[in-house]
Specification:
Strand order of the largest sheet of chain A: 1-4-5-9-8-7-6
Number of helices of chain B: 22
Structural class of chain A: alpha+beta
CATH architecture of the largest domain in chain A: 2-Layer Sandwich
Number of strands of chain B: 46
Helix content of chain B: 25-40%
Largest sheet of chain B: 7 strands, mixed
Structural class of chain B: alpha+beta
Radius of gyration of chain B: 42 Å
Radius of gyration of chain A: 38 Å
CATH topology of the largest domain in chain A: BirA Bifunctional Protein, domain 2
Shape of chain A: elongated
Number of helices of chain A: 13
Largest sheet of chain A: 7 strands, mixed
Number of strands of chain A: 9
Shape of chain B: elongated
Strand order of the largest sheet of chain B: 29-33-34-42-41-40-37
Strand content of chain B: 25-35%
Oligomer: heterodimer
Distance between the termini of chain B: 85 Å
Distance between the termini of chain A: 76 Å
Bound molecules: zinc ion
CATH superfamily of the largest domain in chain A: Bira Bifunctional Protein, Domain 2
Chain lengths: 360, 813
């Protein structure tokens, strides 16, 4: 058989086979496959056309015309079949929208970190820098530099976990010697306030920072106590900062965190590193202030400790306490998260049960 | 501290609703935790006079009392023996109730005799715990007691409130009724008054009875003593017991109760010694010697360290100064001669002793906060007065008062404009001056403000700022306006935190759930993880842990994640895909341990569960490798199989399966590890499926995250893609194949990528099939297949020749 005959036969066979298959096809997607098989770049008809260069010009014309005619014919058939199928399609292909969507990797944020980020972002908006510090800390930064020298009564309020044998209560010596000794005692920080000291030691005012982080206390775990917890510390030091500025900042913050309608109140309190000091309450988010179990019928929830930075603290880091004033505040993140999400037990945060975490 | 409102009102003239008072005190920092309305649990109980007591006709143990109830005489049956004609007693008539209505009294026959009501004991009335006899009002209350009036009126306990205060630790003065009265006075622009009394001293000279020697005036700047002789120690009167009980102090005997009462009243802790047991009446205040012993009032024999402050006589210690008395000199029922100690001890010394012995008392907590050194004489006199008033006897003339180290007078200047600048608002000079005065300061107006003389009971006022707080506090924080500081900084995260935030976001995007764990681990996990011997010295331990389970700071965050998996296992959650950004700790040569922030992740079970359309996908090491590559960039990481006793960052990796684990490096520097957790470790934690963990220190890799993104041209022209698959021996790694192809330096080769690896059915043992895709592309035109066909052939032949690959398929697509 000559190549010409062979090619013409092939074309006829392709036409026959294709027509048959197109006739039998039952879905648009199968039809689409046929289109690729018979008309695509790698389809046999195209391969035949590539062999034309081996024929004489007359033969080329014959085969070329024939192949193109078949191609047109098949295209037409496919179009026809397509319109046919699309009319009957609704009956045959049912999309079951009641099937669940495909679940790929679904992850959750930890509610504590989520809240920390939310709070930090608020303060970033006010021009604060987010900074951090070590969790294993020297006594000097955790206490002494914060106006809590050795033998200060406030030391007993913090049940501290020590990393080095604390001999403070046995040391004899002058006040200065004892203060120096606290530079050699390692502990787990009981609050994020030492980050204030570390930051002030390396930066000059004006200074606006927030420091989130993990803290430790020697607390027996129960529904509201955990030996490890998170705090966010805030510090603003500049010329002319006043208690009014502290009030305004925290009121804005708490209304942003809880609700536009939340009321905020400041009560006098005592922290060694601030003066004047305040405890800050927000109107109960559960009962709106009418009194309920969560707020112990007071209508208020204590959420923050704050105050004007004590001049002793500013002087300890070498700031001019006449020229610069500042405020500081600190909050327990777990407590805020418990209030915000209605979580009854602080231990849930550290158990990391995935059924708990996937709610956030 | 708990105080009855009626008691407080004795020292300040106010008539305010308790809730309103509480609110103002709250704002001023004298926090009121609760207000409890004090209501007697009885109703309808009245006073009655016993006219006659006669035996019960049918019962030996009972008596019949004929009483005058104010509305005539009534006969009642009574079992108590302490009744006698002439006494005034509480009488619960028919129709009255006891114990909040639990008991309703009716006339009833007792052993054949009709009793119309009953006489009551303190316990039955719930006024105290004494149930030994009837409460004899005529012995408890001085003066005439009307008959037939409600009992609560006669006792003066009608409508009272109990305030519970949470007091700031820097305000020793506020730990007393007088101190709180002073605060109330300042808040309501009134004046507080001290208890008023006249002390009669008609005993011998104090010097003939007590001699005091203070050996260390630094530890005991002041020691005051008074003596009351010839007392009869008995129960203290009802009013005193009532107040003590409500303040949370159990009444014991009049002498002891008076010392506690005066401590609550004035804030000055007192101690009473029985003169009999003080040898030669000589009190020596001295430091303890080595291993000296004392049995304190709580019955505990304590061995002291050298240098603890003691009160002793010439033979023995008789009290742990400022903390607790000793049993050997305790006041007893038959005590007749009393020495009252009213001293000022150094707060540090008290704190030190109290901490070392683990002994906190009402007295020690007050001394720790620095009690007013000027208050000792007043308190001693007040106690002597009350003792004599209740127990009779004679007060010795004068007092011993050794006050060698006088408290200096603190004077500070307060600038008016500094107050305004700090608080952020204007104040009238009149308000400022008045407030200081009401708080007990002496005020002298000077040019720029005020010169204050600080009262000795306010050790917290040391400099200007402390005085400014007083103004803000008494004015009320609620009335200070709100402003925002001017701040022209641009906020943001410091560099390290920016890195962590980005890592976190990338891990979340890849479907890893964030966890936060407690870094404090127990010794068990550390043990089963293979930290022993020299390794153990690297662990950072808490010296005073709450328990063994919370004693070691995690050296490997992966261990914490294994614990999370275990927690979830116990709740039937078996598919876990988690990460944490936390800290790990290791001992160092310095004071602080080495502390590093690490990124850890763990997987087990299925990473994708079986669903109707497909799955499941098993979680394995490549989930973690993929995480590492997506977070830090595959080009920055190398994964090298573990050596036999491999370690990372100086700590061993004994808890990993050596042949299924790798050290991760970046340009040759170790940055982390990943691997399969040993089955022994998992078994010990009751985990029965394979767990994979990874830990990376981001510090070294942070440039890969911080690096600012630069635009790369998007490919414009189509690529030519070749796939080929082949069979090779199992030990040949993908990287061997990839590197061999890359080493050919093929023109237009854009990427080499493996897209299938298969071992098992249909493939000879010890071999695997692998499929590779090569992508060729020109940046400036469309390639013809013929241009790269030879390159593709070359790639196939090198794989064939170098690795003995058996090529199965080759396609261009
Ligand atoms: Zn509420």
């Amino acid at each position: 058989m000559s190549l010409l005959e062979e090619l013409i036969r092939s074309i006829d066979e392709i036409k026959k086979a294709a027509s048959e298959e197109i006739g039998n096809v039952a879905s648009i997607s199968d039809l689409e496959k046929l289109r690729v098989t018979y008309l695509g770049r790698k389809a046999e008809l195209n391969l035949i056309l590539r062999q034309l260069k081996e024929l004489s010009p007359e033969e080329r014309k014959i085969v070329g015309e024939k192949a193109n005619a078949v191609k047109k014919e098949l295209e037409e058939k496919i179009r026809e079949k397509e319109s046919q199928l699309s009319h009957t399609k609704e009956k045959k292909e049912i999309v079951d929208f009641s099937l669940p969507g495909k679940k790929y990797y679904v992850s959750s944020e930890h509610p504590i970190q989520k809240l920390i980020n939310e709070i930090c972002e608020f303060f970033i908006g006010l021009g604060y820098e987010v900074v951090s510090g070590p969790e294993a800390e020297i006594d000097y930064y955790n206490f002494t530099a914060l106006n809590i020298p050795p033998y200060h009564p406030a030391r007993s309020m913090h049940d501290t976990l020590y990393l080095s044998e604390s001999t403070l209560f046995e040391l004899e010596g002058t006040e200065d010697e004892l203060r120096e000794a606290t530079r050699k005692i390692a502990l787990l920080r009981t609050h994020t306030s030492p980050v204030q000291i570390r930051t002030m030691l390396r930066k000059k005012p004006p200074l606006f920072i927030v420091a989130p982080g993990r803290c430790y206390r020697r607390d027996v775990p129960d529904a509201t106590h955990s030996p490890v917890f998170h705090q966010i510390e805030g510090l603003a030091v500049a010329e002319g900062i006043s208690f009014s500025d502290l009030k305004g900042t925290l009121e804005l913050f708490l209304r942003n965190l809880f609700s536009q309608n939340a009321r905020v109140r400041f009560r006098a309190s005592y922290f060694p590193f601030t003066e004047p000091s305040a405890e800050v309450d927000v109107s109960c988010i559960i009962c709106g202030g009418d009194g309920c179990r969560v707020c112990k019928d007071t209508g208020w929830l204590e959420v923050l400790g704050a105050g004007m930075v004590h001049p002793n603290v500013l002087e300890e880091v070498g700031y001019d306490s006449e020229k610069y004033t500042g405020f500081a505040f600190g909050m327990g993140v777990e407590r805020l998260a418990m209030l915000k999400y209605g979580i009854p037990d602080i231990r849930l945060f550290f158990e990391n049960n995935l059924k708990f975490l996937e709610q956030f | 501290m708990k105080v009855l409102y009626s008691w407080l009102k004795e020292y300040v003239d106010i008539d305010i609703q308790p809730e309103i008072l509480a609110e103002r005190l709250n704002y001023a920092g004298i926090s009121v935790e609760s207000i409890e309305k004090i209501v007697p649990s009885f109703k309808g109980v009245i006073t009655a006079k016993i006219l006659e007591v006669k035996p019960h006709p049918n019962a030996e143990k009972l008596q019949i009392a004929l009483i005058d109830s104010g509305k005539g005489t009534i006969e009642v049956v009574c079992g108590a023996k302490n009744i006698a004609p002439g006494q005034i007693v509480p009488f619960a008539p028919e129709g009255s109730t006891l114990k909040n209505g639990e008991i309703r009294l009716e006339a009833r026959k007792i052993r054949g005799f009709l009793s119309r009501g009953m006489l009551c004991s303190e316990a039955e009335l719930e006024l105290g715990d004494d149930e030994s006899g009837i409460l004899i009002l005529s012995e408890e209350i001085s003066g005439d007691i009307p008959i037939g009036v409600p009992l609560e009126e006669a006792l003066g306990i009608k409508s009272d409130y109990l305030f519970e205060f949470e007091l700031p630790s820097n305000r020793p003065d506020a730990f007393s009724v007088v101190g709180i009265a002073r605060e109330v006075a300042a808040l309501f622009n009134s004046k507080a008054k001290f208890p008023d009394f006249h002390l009669t001293e008609n005993g011998p000279q104090i010097g003939d009875i007590v001699k005091v020697e203070v050996e260390d005036e630094n530890l005991c700047p002041r020691y005051t003593a008074k003596a009351v002789l010839g007392v009869i120690n008995k129960r203290s009167p009802f009013w005193m017991r009532w107040r003590l009980l409500h303040s949370g102090i159990r009444p014991i005997s009049a002498i002891v109760d008076v010392t506690n009462y005066v401590m609550l009243e004035t804030g000055q802790p007192l101690h009473a010694f029985d003169l009999r047991f003080v040898k030669d009446g000589k009190i020596i205040v001295r430091a303890s010697g080595k291993d000296e012993k004392i049995t304190t009032l709580d019955g505990v024999l304590r061995t002291l360290r050298e240098g603890m402050l003691l009160i002793a006589d010439s033979e023995k210690p008789i009290a742990l100064a400022g903390i607790m008395g000793a049993e050997n000199s305790e006041v007893k029922e038959d005590t007749t001669d009393v020495i009252i100690e009213s001293a000022h001890f150094d707060s540090k010394s008290i704190m030190r002793t109290s901490r070392i012995l683990g002994l906190n008392t009402e007295a020690s907590t007050r001394f720790e906060k620095k009690v007013d050194p000027e208050g000792t004489v007043f308190a001693a006199k007040r106690a002597a007065y009350l003792m004599r008033d209740i127990c009779g006897g004679n007060v010795a003339k004068g007092e011993v008062d050794i006050y060698k180290k006088k408290a200096g007078q603190v004077q500070i200047n307060v600038r008016h404009n500094r107050i305004e600048k700090l608080v952020g608002m204007e104040f009238s000079k009149e308000f400022v001056k008045r407030t200081f005065e009401n708080l007990g300061f002496k005020v002298e107006e000077i040019n720029e403000g005020y010169r204050l003389t600080v009262p000795t009971f306010r050790p917290d006022i040391e400099r200007e700022i402390d005085a400014i707080e007083e103004i803000a506090r008494i004015y009320g924080y609620d009335r200070i306006e709100s402003t925002l500081p001017s701040n022209n900084h641009i906020g943001g995260y410091e560099e390290d935190l920016k890195v962590l935030r980005d890592i976190r976001e990338r891990a979340l995007r890849l479907g890893f759930t964030e966890v936060i764990t407690n870094p404090l681990l127990g010794s068990k996990i550390v043990e089963i993880s293979g930290f022993s011997g020299r390794e153990e010295e690297k662990l950072v331990k808490v010296v005073n842990p709450l328990s063994n389970d919370l004693s070691i700071l995690s050296p490997r965050l992966a261990l914490n994640l294994i614990y999370v998996i275990r927690n979830n296992f116990t709740r039937s959650v078996r598919n876990v895909r988690i990460f944490e950004l936390g800290r790990v700790f290791k001992n160092s040569d310095g004071i602080l341990p080495e502390e590093k922030t690490v990124f850890a992740a763990a997987v087990c079970g299925n990473s994708l569960e079986k669903q109707w359309w497909g799955g499941p996908l098993n979680a394995d090491l490549y989930d973690l490798k993929g995480l590492a590559e997506s977070v830090f960039g595959a080009e920055n990481l190398e994964f090298n199989p573990l050596d036999s006793d491999a370690s990372f960052d100086g700590i061993n990796l004994n808890f990993l399966e050596g042949d299924k684990s790798a050290i991760i490096t970046s340009k040759g520097r170790p940055v982390g590890y990943l691997g399969a957790v040993k089955s022994e470790v998992l078994r010990a934690l009751d985990i029965d499926i394979q767990v994979y963990v990874m830990e990376i220190i981001p510090e070294i890799l942070k440039s890969s995250i911080l690096e600012s993104k630069k635009y790369q041209p998007v490919p414009l022209y189509p690529a030519i893609v070749y796939d080929f698959s082949f069979i090779i021996p199992d030990e040949i790694l993908y990287s061997d194949i990839r590197d061999a192809i890359i080493s050919l330096n093929l023109k237009y080769l854009e990427s080499v990528e493996v897209f299938d690896v298969y071992k098992g059915k249909g493939i000879e043992k010890g071999k695997k099939s692998m499929a590779i895709r090569l992508v060729f592309r020109s940046p400036d035109r469309t390639l013809e297949e013929s241009e790269v066909r030879d390159s593709f052939e070359a790639a196939m032949s090198i794989v064939k020749e170098k690795f003995g690959a058996d090529i199965r398929r080759a396609d261009v697509s």
